Structures are given as structure tokens and as C-alpha cells.
Amino acid sequence: MSSGCEHMIEIQDLRKIYQMGQVEVKALDGVSLTIDKGEFIGIMGPSGSGKSTLLHLLGLLDDPTSGSIQIEGIDVSRLTDWERTMFRLYKLGYVFQDYALVPELTVKENICLPAMLRTDREEKDYIAATRDILHKIGLWDRRDHLQSELSGGQQQRVAIARAIVNTPDILFADEPCANLDTENSRMVLDLFKQINQEMQQTIVMVSHEDWHKEYFDRIVRLKDGKMVNGGR
Amino acid sequence: MAKKELRVALFLAWRSLVRGNRSSMLLNVLIISMVFTNMMFFPALMSGIGVDIKEQIVAYQTSNILIEPAKGDQYISDLDTTLAQVNGMPGVERATPHYQMGATLKFRGRLLGTTIHAIRPREEKYVSPLYTTMIAGSYLGDGDKGEAIIGELVAGSPNIPEEDEFNPSLGGVRVGDSILVEFGNGFQKEYRVKGIFRTGNFEMDNRVIVTWEDMEEVVGEPLDYAPYITVRVKPDYSETFVKNEILQYGLREKVQTTEDLLNKGIGRALASFSIIGLISMLVSLVIAIVVLFIVIMIKTLNNRRQIGILKAIGVEKSVIMHSYGLQVIILSLAGILVGFLFTGLIVVYMTYYPMVTPEFSATPYVTPLDLAFNGIILFAASVVSGYLPAWRVARENIQNVIRV
Ligand SMILES: Nc1ncnc2c1ncn2[C@@H]1O[C@H](COP(=O)(O)OP(=O)(O)OP(=O)(O)O)[C@@H](O)[C@H]1O
Ligand SMILES: [Mg+2]
After folding, report:
1. Would you place residue B404 in the very low, low, confident or very high pLDDT band (cuts 50, 70, 90)?
2. Which chain B residue is nearest to residue A60, measuring alpha carbons?
3. Is the CB of A207 under 6 A from ligand 1?
4. Residue B202 in 3-state DSSP?
5. By C-alpha distance, which of B339, B305, B384, B296 is closest to B25?
6. Which of A185, B47, B79, B233 has CB atoms 3.0–4.6 Å from B365's, for a disulfide?
7. Residue-number span of the structural domain to which B353 is assigned
8. How far does the CA of residue B301 sit from the closest CA of chain A (Å)?
């Protein structure tokens, strides 16, 4: 399986079919794709084309109807529920459209939450990591603020910080700029790009804003659950 | 669950409690504390009444052990021999005889039917604290003749007209007054009131008491027999031990401890009290369960998406479940603690201002065991009702909750 595994992600003929009564909804209809380490991939396409579905399957948040997903040579369909949770904790990071921070936690606490659960991290490790990230996202001054005291752009930067605190192998983001104005979107995208370049962070991002294209190394374009270009 | 996970769960729970809605948190604590207080109060009051009744009966009516004539006999005969025998037994503080006879009292135009009791005043001091309850005049002395002490309720008050009286009395007898007593056997005599006592015991405060010598005059012969003997047990001995001892000495009389008597009479009343107490406790528990269940249910439903996100970023479902469960644990511990406080305050208050009725004066009787028992039950119920919705939502499929 691990045939000189330079591919970060390798998916084959991936399908996701929703049965809605009599009707079959083919959210994803046979997608094959490889993503390499360090790539910044943009998944684009019209609404309902299956972008989120693909991202969720890659991020182990959902199970495919058929097809295979290998991440770092591991066939993830073989993982138990608990192993998948640990896989997400140790190897994957997520950024959601609506930030999805924990409202009762401060900026600092939100960021270090995933790191607190890792058995390979001491308290001083994640405190240091959190401090570094806070400086990187420019919110060190806001570390003790609650979500309700931040702007949308700031919240999304915190969400990104939370996603990368565990130095994941892959960072997933589903329309992270959908709720932001252009200026804040640019700030967030610049942050992604910076992480991508400085840390060779593999990033898979869903977007339907055309001007985001300039940030991506490669664009995977979907239509009606099928890949129309960008595959390899 | 590992230490690390428990720490994170506790961290999330604590933050959610202190940074969440303060007033709703305080309200939850208040509800639990009220439930706890309610669980404690009624049964505690009931057992307080039970304890009070028992204390009164021991103090003024039967003492620790009551010796009555054997079946078929009207009196305990050979009184002095019997008394000497019982008094010689280990564990017996003192045994004293009582004699009683129905009589009608006459005082300034008022008539009152009652029972006249005869005691041996000095002996009686070892058995009953009656001598400490004099509110006017003084206690009887051995050999007093033509003198009586009467209960407060017999004495009555000059300010209440006869027709308004709840409890018939002589309408304001004072120390030094004379009462005409017509005994059931036809004997009549005037007695000077030497003292008035208030024991708080309804039956006792309705009595008139004279000396043994006076009663001998009434019956017209030396009283070497008595309808009953009361026995005070030494502090270190149990009632049952002394009772068995008396029985082993071959006394043919009927011997019963206060406990035996209570079990027959008010024991049954106390048993039905305790059923009422149990029902009230169950109702309180159900309220606590429902409230906590709804609180956590709403919390988890409101946070369904957030829970999904936490699972997505790698937080184990057990951590999520415990983060809600621990909130309930903290809430209910706080509530129970405040409940302890409320219960304590009520007990203290009612110690100073007891609930007084003619039959008893009640102060809630709370033992550490009751506190622990009710606390544990309420705690267990809370935990179950909090964990149930937490467990349900933690198991939910990520996909169902994560899509906006
Ligand atoms: N739980 C579901 N049950 C049934 N159909 C679903 C479900 N989730 C998604 N779909 C369908 O699958 C298709 C792909 O959905 P998906 O969310 O991946 O689209 P998308 O490209 O992310 O769209 P958008 O840009 O609007 O977010 C859509 O037709 C959608 O209606
Ligand atoms: Mg989508």
C-alpha cells in the first residue's frame, strides 16, 4: 500500500449517494483524486455540486457509499470510530464557515483545546504553541477575550489557529470566508497561504469565490458530483 | 477514561457553568437545594414529632419500662417487695409505683372530671423530671397531706370564659386555692393547691397529683398494691436489657419497654407518617430529575452543532458526555450543599420556635445519616438525569449536526 507514499491523500472512485425516498441524490459521483504533501488545493464548483460532501469524506466526518480513501497510505475505511476520532485529533485540522468556536472559552482556551487532549503534549508544550500561534494570527492582545467580543475575521483567525495548533498533516476548510467581507477574507486567505508556505502545510479548501483562485496551487472543480477538472 | 480527558471534560464543564448563563445556573442550584430541603424537612419533622412524643412519654407517663399487673389481675400486689426486687437489679435507676383514681373536681362553680394520680414524691424525682416543671408554688413532699399539685391545663386561666375553652379547666386556680375532690369511690376531700406544673405534655398537664399517703386515706387502707410501676433505666443500660432482666427474675407481671408501647400505639401512626414522608421525598426526587433532565436536554440541544464540531476536531464523545455530566454533578453538589444549609437553618429556627400543638412540640430531627442518605439519593438521581441527554447527544452522527 505505502508504495513510496509521496501522496498525502489518494481517493478512488468516491461516491456518496443519499436515498431520498424514491430518489437517489448522487452528491458525489465517482471522484478520483490525489493530493500531495504541501499542496494548497481549492475545491470549487456551483452550489450543490458536492464540495462539502467531498471535504467531509476526506476529513473523516462522513462515510462514502463506495470508493476508497487513503490518507498517508492508510485505508481510513478500516478505522474504528475511536481510531477515526484519534486520526482527526492527531492528523487533521478543520476550519468551518461559521467559525464554530466554543463561546464559553476565551481565544486562548479555544486554541489550545485540541492540544489539551493529546497524550504526546505536556501543558508547557501547548501553552507555548498557543502563544506562538496567537502572535502569528496577530491576536495576542485578544487572548483573553470571548468569541462574542471579536469580529468575524478575528473569530475565523482563531478558528484557524485552533485547527493548526496540533500541527495537522492536512488542514480542511469549508468556505472559511463565506461570512467575511473582502478585506477580512483576504486577511484569512493570506494567513492560510502563509501557513501553507512556511510550514509546507497541506490545505484543502472549499470556495466558490472566483478571486480566491490566485491563492490555490491547484483547483479541483466539481459539477453535479463529478470532477470536471483538476484531478490527477 | 484517562486523566487527561477527565481534565478537559471538567475544564469544559466548569467554563460552561461560570461563563454561561449565571442566573439560570443559580436557579438550578436553588431548585436542587429546595428539593433537598423538601426531601429532608417532612420526614425530619415526622421523626422529630416521634422523638418528642417518645421523650414526653418516657419523661411523664411510663418512664423507660412499664410494669403492669399480670393478665386477670387488677393490681400489682406485694408492692413493696416487688419494688425492692426491681430496684435491686443492675441497670435500674429507680422503680416507683403509681396509683390513679377517677374524680370530679369542684372549684368556684366549675366542675371538671379528671384522674387523680398518687406518687411517692421523693422517689418520683429519680424517674420523672416533673419536679423541674413547676411554674408556680412547689413540688410535693413525702408525707404531704391535703395538698395537691395540678397541671397547667387543669388550673386554666381566669381570662377565658368557660364556653370559649378548648380544653375544659377549673378556670384560673392559683397556688393556695382549695379544690374539692369527689373521688370515684365516693370519698370527698378538699385539697390545697401546692403547685402548678407545665410539662408540655397534654395528658400530664391534665393531671392532679397527690401523695401516696393521701391516696391511702382515700382508699381507706394501706396501699401495698398499685395499678402500675414505672422504671427508670440507668443511662448506660438499654431498656430491653433491663426488661429481660426483670422478666428473668420471675416477675409474673406484664413488662414492656416504651419502645414496645410505642410500636403498638403511635408506632402505627408514625409508620403512616413515614409513608407520607416517603411519598413527599419521591415527588421531590421526580421534580429534581425532570428539572435537571430538561436543563441538560435544552443545553445539549442548543449546542448540538457545537458538540458536532468538537467531535469533528477530535474531542472524544466520552469527553463531551462528561463535560455535560460534570455540569450536573457540580450543580447538584452545589444544590445539595445549599440544601444542607437551608435544612440546618430550618432546624436551628425550629429549635427556637418549635411547632407547638397540644400533643407535642416538634423540631425537625435530622441525623447525619439522613443527610447523607438523601444527599446520595438526590445526587444519584441528578447524575442519571443529566447523563442521559448528554450521552444521547454525544452519540449523534457528526454529519447530522455539522451541516448548517
Ligand atoms: N444529508 C443529506 N441528505 C440528502 N441530500 C444531501 C444531504 N447532504 C447533501 N445532500 C445533497 O448533496 C448534494 C451536494 O451537497 P453539498 O453540500 O456537498 O454541496 P456544496 O457543493 O457544498 O454546495 P454549497 O456550495 O451550497 O455549500 C446537494 O444536492 C445536497 O442537496
Ligand atoms: Mg457546501
Report:
1. low
2. B312
3. no
4. coil
5. B296
6. B47
7. 3-57+268-403
8. 15
The domain tally of chain B equals: 2
Which chain B residue has its CA at the smallest distance from A87's CA?
B314
Mean predicted confidence (pLDDT) in B47-69: 87
Q: Do B36 and B12 share a structural domain?
A: yes
Look at ligand 1, atom 18, and give the residue with the nearest C-alpha.
A50
B404 near A CB under 8 A: yes
C-beta of A27 in contact with ligand 1 (< 6 A) = yes
Residue B119 has pLDDT above 90, yes or no: yes
Out of B8, B305, B316, the one facing A116 most closely (by C-beta) is B8
- Residues near A46 by Cβ (< 8 Å), separated by ≥ 6? A208, A223
Please report the domains of chain A, with CATH numbers, ordered by start residue. Answer: 9-229 (3.40.50.300)
- HEC secondary structure over chain A: CCCCCCEEEEEEEEEEEEEECCEEEEEEEEEEEEEECCCEEEEECCCCCCHHHHHHHHCCCCCCCEEEEEECCEEHHHCCHHHHHHHHHHHEEEECCCCCCCCCCEHHHHHHHHHHCCCCCCHHHHHHHHHHHHHHCCCHHHCCCEHHHCCHHHHHHHHHHHHHCCCCCEEEEECCCCCCCHHHHHHHHHHHHHHHHHHCCEEEEECCCHHHHHHCCEEEEEECCEEEECCC
For B269, the 3-state DSSP assignment is: helix
Same-domain check for residues B206 and B245:
yes
Which cell is B208 given? 392532679
Per-residue pLDDT of B308-345, as tens digits, reads 889 999 999 999 999 999 998 999 999 999 999 999 99
Sign of CA dihedral B2, B400, A95, A34: positive
Residue A2 has pLDDT above 60, yes or no: no
* pLDDT above 80 (res B168): yes
Best CA proximity match to A130, nearest among A119, A143, A149: A143
pTM of the entire structure?
Answer: 0.76
A70 touches A10 (CB < 8 A): yes
Chain A residues in contact with B316 (beta carbon < 8 A): 82, 85, 117
Q: Examine the domain organization and report whether B313 and B181 are in the same domain.
A: no
Assigned domain for B259 exists: no
Residues B228 and B136 in one domain: yes
Cα–Cα distance for residue pair B40/B43, rounded to 1 Å: 6
- Could you tell me if A130 and A165 are in contact, meaning their C-beta atoms sit under 8 angstroms apart? yes
- The distance between the two most distant Cα atoms of chain A, rounded to a whole number of Å, is 56
Buried b (16+ CB within 10 A) or exposed e, B285-323: bebbbebbbebbbebbeebebbbbbbbbbbbbbbbbbbb
Distance of CA B119 to the CA centre of its chain: 29
